Amino acid sequence: MQSLENHFLIAMPSMQDPFFKRAVAYICEHNEDGAMGLVINQPINITVGDLLDKIEIDNDKSTHAASVAVFAGGPVKTDRGFVLHSPKAGYSASQELSSEIMITTSKDVLASLTTAQAPEQFIITLGYAGWEQGQLEQELLENSWLIIKADPEIIFNTPIEQRWEKAVATLGFDISQLSSEAGHA
């Protein structure tokens, strides 16, 4: 089995699950036990500053970071926050996922997000998308997802409403040309 860690899953136009319709999921972990990813293009009606207030972390509301949208990362454990961020020295609680992306659930990192010590780029998700052993592979066989290598530019610098289209565009074809019906030769 080839691991899909550090790849995007792009929901096919035929995906009808309301949570994953037009979703782009960054795969953080994928092994023989299953997969875990974070949806990076489903904002919720809460800002970073609001979230930090809810979990009683002091923050500077005057910063741009405080006004950034938080995302619904997936339907599993929606009370748990994850921070995807650009590499930052000294963040020992963060795990490197690639040379350009780290992940953490550390309150220390959350507390730094509206300060000068914040990573240069970050997004916060509440919850994650999880697949049990063999489930993701089955969804791939059913043509539910397209797969591309993850691009930090899409995570951190692409406007939210354009992330699905930009991820699809990296494949080099017009998504409108895809049929919503799956076929197998």
From TrEMBL:
Protein name (record): UPF0301 protein ACI2JU_10065
Family: Belongs to the UPF0301 (AlgH) family.
One Pfam entry name: DUF179
Database matches in NCBIfam families: PRK00228.1-1
